[in-house]
Design goal:
Blueprint lengths: L1 E5 L6 H12 L2 E4 H10 L3 H11 L6 H14 L5 E4 L5 H13 L6 E6 L2 H9 L1 E4 L5 E3 L14 E2 L6 H15 L2 H7 L3 E5 L4 H18 L1
Parallel strand pairs: 1-3, 1-4, 2-3, 4-8
Antiparallel strand pairs: 5-6, 5-7
Helix pairs in contact: 1-9, 2-3
Bound molecules: adenosine monophosphate (AMP).
The site of adenosine monophosphate has 18 residues, from α2 and α3.
């Protein structure tokens, strides 16, 4: 199964991808996590990406494309969930061509639908494990006790100054992809409000229904 999780920052793409990894064995490919690792490693990609990410802007397409290409190739073109890629029409066009030329079409693009006020609450309460990339929510999914607190951080781009810009970029550049996916008959809209497990059940239910139709 090859799917894309799509939605605003804070819609739950990362958490739902982790559950799809745990319960369905899908590899979680997140360009955001790969970029944050590159920054932590102080690699040349990380140094280039950092300024864009801190400002809540998109990292240049050629940089992210290489990362996506490598991760998808490493997955052997199957059993993956893409989280945070594609984010522009240009990225989507490249992805479709790349997958098609490798005989690996997408099953679906799952759109996690979440209203803006909930998004802002989720992002401001989000914390992330620097090494694993796992997301926590201070209220609904607090980091387990016993974890070294210095490993649990607030992402720089989850701070109020950057959140606004990320939401703006999302509405201008990424949201138009919804029609693009709909036209290709790939869009599955899932209500993203609820507990992690509730949303997960909706996602897997929608995917199973789709697979049964094929
Ligand atoms: P995420 O973890 O998916 O919220 O991504 C965090 C940040 O990484 C984004 O705000 C962008 O700066 C950068 N990023 C991640 N994926 C992409 C992408 N597909 N295109 C451009 N920038 C990206």
């Amino acid at each position: 199964m090859r799917i894309v999780l799509f939605g605003a920052p804070g819609a739950g793409k990362g958490s739902q991808s982790s559950l799809l990894f745990e319960n369905e064995g899908l590899e979680h490919i997140s360009t955001g996590i790969i970029l944050r690792r590159a920054i932590a490693d102080d690699s040349s990609v990380g140094r280039e990406a950092k300024q864009y990410m801190d400002a809540g802007a998109l990292v240049p397409g050629r940089v992210v494309r290489k990362l996506a290409e490598k991760a998808i190739t490493d997955s052997e073109f199957d059993q993956f969930v893409l989280d945070g890629y594609p984010r522009t029409i240009e990225q989507a066009e490249w992805l479709f061509e790349f997958l098609e030329s490798n005989d690996a079409p997408l099953l679906a693009v799952v759109y996690l639908k979440v209203p803006d006020d909930i998004i802002v609450n989720r992002i401001s309460n989000r914390r992330v494990h620097v090494e694993t990339g796992e997301n926590f929510h201070l209220e609904y999914k607090p980091p387990p006790t016993g974890i070294d607190p210095s490993l649990i951080i607030q992402r720089d781009d989850d701070r109020p100054e950057a959140i606004l810009n990320r939401l703006l970029v999302y509405h201008e550049e990424t949201r138009p992809l919804k029609d693009y996916f709909r036209e290709r008959d790939l869009l599955l809209i899932v209500d993203g409000v609820g507990s992690f497990q509730e949303v997960h059940s909706r996602v897997t239910g929608a995917l199973r229904e789709l697979q049964a139709e094929l």
